[in-house]
Structures are given as C-alpha cells and as structure tokens.
Amino acid sequence: MFATKYQRYEIELLLKAHEDFVKEIVYQAIYVSAGEPAPSRDILKSPDIRKYYQNWGRKGDYGLLLVHQPSEQPVGGCFVRYYSKDLAGYGFVSENIPELNIALLPDHRGNGQGTKLLGKLLCDLKQLNYQGVSLSVDKRNPVMSLYEKLGFRVVKEEGNPTMLLTFNS
C-alpha cells in the first residue's frame, strides 16, 4: 500500500474478472488535449480498439490494478498484451514484445500513482523475463517525457511515436 497526502492506494493483479475495467483503462488511455472533447465511448466498439480489452486474461496478458482504499474501487491500471502481426496494435514492434496500456481515472491523476504503478509493472515484467515492452504515445502528451526518463526510446515516428523499452538479462 502507498499513500498520497489525502488518499491511500493498493496495487493488485489485474485478473480476468476485471475485463470491464480493462475496457475502462483502454478508454481512459486515449489522449485528449486540453480543451478538446473526449471521444464517444462508441470508439470502444471499433475493432482497432476492442482488441486491447476483448478476452482479457488470455495467455501472455499481465497487468496491475490501482485500487483506492478504503473504498476498494479500481481507479487505474496498466497492462501488457501480445499481438500478432496481423492484429498489430498502435504500438506494435514485434510479436515477441507486448504492448503497454496505462491509465488512471481523471480524479486520481497527478499525484504520482501512475508513475508508481508503471514502475511496479516494469519491475514485474523484468522479473518475469519479458524481453521488453512497447507503446504508442501521442506526441502532444506530456507523459512522453516520463517514458523517456524510464528508458523508453522512439523506434518509429509514423503518426504518433512508438516507443520501446528493452530489459537487459
């Protein structure tokens, strides 16, 4: 458990039973610039988006859930998922590197919880012998500098950058 000035959080494993919240993570991970309207939730029905959450818990899926205490409500999460070349996600690098998604509900952003959650996930992935992890990030998103500090590097710049972090054995 860890606490901010006013709130406490726990990190738990993201389980198959959390598929609905995985869907929420995917929606919340869509970057929206200040002053722009959020996309309709209908975007979650798109095959390009649905593949990120559908059938959560399949082989290779791994993630963490950020749970607010004492309410025990999930308020964020991060996960990785492998994709085949024909179902490649936006941050696809290879079939041997899973793609990362991370998001917190808006009321729980800006207090360092997301950074702690991501740090724990990356530590877990390294201990579980993952080769690395990739992601796609909107180039206007200020979180890009956090990814760079954590060791991610840009490997593709078509549209939004695709970033890769590799783990040394």
Describe this structure in words.
- This protein is 21% helix and 27% strand.
- It has 169 residues and is an alpha+beta fold.
- The protein has one domain: 3-Layer(aba) Sandwich (Aminopeptidase).
- The radius of gyration is 15 Å and the shape is globular.
- The two termini are 29 Å apart.
Number of helices: 4
How many runs of DSSP E, i.e. beta strands? 8
Number of domains: 1
Question: How far is the first residue's CA from the last residue's CA?
Answer: 29 Å
Q: Provide the CATH architecture.
A: 3-Layer(aba) Sandwich
What does the oligomeric state look like here?
Answer: single chain
What is the spatial order of strands in the main beta sheet? 1-2-3-4-5
Order of helices and strands: EEHHEEEHEHEE
Rg calculated over all Cα atoms: 15 Å
CATH superfamily: Gcn5-related N-acetyltransferase (GNAT)
Lay out the secondary structure.
Blueprint: E1 2-3, E2 8-13, H1 19-28, H2 47-50, E3 62-69, E4 73-81, E5 99-104, H3 113-127, E6 132-136, H4 144-149, E7 153-156, E8 162-166
Antiparallel strand pairs: 1-2, 2-3, 3-4, 4-5, 6-8, 7-8
Q: What does this entry show, briefly?
A:
The protein is built from 4 helices and 8 strands; from the N terminus they run ββααβββαβαββ.
